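User: Hey, quick favor. My workstation is busy. Could you predict this chain's structure for me?
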Amino acid sequence: MDEFTSTKIFISELADPDNNVGARFVELYNSDSEPLDLKGWTLRRYTNDNTEISSTIDLSGFVIEGNSTFVISPNASEFEKVYGFPPSHSVSINSPADSNGDDNLELVDPFGTVIDIFGVIGEDGSGTNHEFEDGRAIRNGDVSEANPIYTPSEWTIYNDTGEAGTINEPQNAPDNFNPGIR
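Assistant: No problem, here it is.
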């Protein structure tokens, strides 16, 4: 299958559980009814206030089924122990799926275009409207397309500070998370 772009794939949940860093994950969602091949797609992380890419996940070789999630874990064995099923993709620690809640992420299509973003590149998330430290950032259910401009109103964010419109309610795994369910 040839590379393609789509705004139907987007970041739907970011997890940094207060009680278990091994249960962190990133969830993508395909809001299209058709399966979408991720050949050439990448997920990039900018750690803290960095403006240079800190780490990247190549999503080539994977397909997200229609109206389905794709869960990426930096610790597959701990993820499966905590949530009861294996992640869709297992990656290393210090990858985009291993964020401590103040990093920024971009979903990039095969042509180098940023399709979706979480956070503000160059701004450490601590104390901002994109901090999910010890918590989670979940895309609101009415969002059905990617957005290359971070829009806080598209997200519900739980953390340990409650700054800038977020909710001061640390989240524990597995009870406060639902990977694989949109």
